[in-house]
Every structure is written in C-alpha cells, then in structure tokens.
Design goal:
It is a single chain. About 60% of the residues lie in helices and about 5% in strands. The protein has about 240 residues and is mainly alpha-helical. α3 runs antiparallel to α4 and α5 crosses α10. The chain is elongated, with a radius of gyration of 21 Å.
Amino acid sequence: MKVNPYYVDLARIFLVTFMMAYASYLDIKERKVPNKVWALFAPIAVVLFILDIIGKEYYEIFMMLINILIVSAFGFASFYFGILGGADAKAIMVLGLMLPRWPVYTSHSLPYIPLVLDALILGAIITLAYFPGCLIYNIISGEVALPKALYGIKMCKQQALEKKDHYIPLYALRENGSLEFKFRMLLPPEEEIEKIWEAIENSDLEEIWVSPGIPFIVYLFMGLIITMVYGDLIMGPILNLII
C-alpha cells in the first residue's frame, strides 16, 4: 500500500524541526549534543524512508539513496578534515537520511542537488550575519577597534572565565607562551582551548576579545527551515548564472 508522500513530508518536517531545535538548544546551553539524540531520530528516519519508497520507481529510489550517500559522505568528510564538529557532522548524516528528497509540495526544488546540501550552503551564508552583528553590538558598547570589532565582543576577563564554556577566546599561543589575537568561529581542540584560557587567566589583561561561538548547527537549522518551507533560495540562481 502506497503512502501519500504529503504525509511523509509533513512527518519529516515536524521531526526535523523538533530534532534540530532540541539539538540547537543543547549545543548552545551545554556545548555538546549527546549521541542519543541522533540514535533516537536515525531509526525514525529509516522507517520514513521505507514508507516513502513503497510504490516508487526504481530510479526514484536510486536517486534517494544517492542523495543519502552524498550527504553522509559530506558530513563525514567535514568532520574528518576539521571543518565541522562532531555534532554538526552527525546532524548532517541523520538529516541526509531524514530528507533524502525534496518535499513534493515545493515548486522551488533542485532535483539533482540534495536538499540538505542546499540548506547547508544557505546556513553557511547566514553565518555571514555574524560579522555585522558583532560590529553593531560593539558600536553600541563603544568598542569600534577594527577589525576586532567585526570578529567578536570585548568582555571583562573574569566574566569570560566564569562563562568560558559559552565563549571562544580570540587568541592563540605564540611559541614563547604569550597571547596573540586570532579570529575564530569554531572551537579549537579541547587541549588547546584549555591552554589558551589558562594563559588568559595568568595574563595581565583586564578585558579580552571573545566570540559568542554560536554553534553552526543553529545556522544549519535556519537554513533548513527556509529550504523546507520555501525550497531552493540560493543554488538555483547561482547555477543559472554559471550555466
């Protein structure tokens, strides 16, 4: 018995929204997303996939499997090469399984580009709002030192140390152990970040530059919402310009 694809799509949208909202909340609050989140939703994605392929042509099933493979490979590669963190990579792989095709209701789809990759690109573009956001905050706060005002915010050292799990210090350690300013949007390895915080704590600095460190999973969530509701917003126009 063939399942109406509209119902499958509605279930997927609801589950993806809930999953990503919860994962974003955890990543902001705890700075980590437990594996049990992905372990819970991955089997549900498999069930929806099975329901979705009932009655479909072999070519459609093949394309869905290819999309899952492409997205999963991208998620793994992004983690392996240090582009994204573990939670982001796992989210991408589960999303690839949860959204193996474009929803049937949207008229703005790109059949040969996986929906998740389209949302990823849109999410990456949304991250660019970080820079004017920091600048506006710093102007209001009276801190207009460029380019630092574009990259982060200035905080009292003690306040930053008390909330260090929620901020990324915009510094790196020189060979002699001293600090130098360095722009970051992603957390460095845990061992390195601890050494940087230790150096900051022992320094004479009273104020330091930090990044709010909004997890990429939040930007990905924004890109997904737009892509699931509207469809393709970015890749189509770009491909039209190129081709």
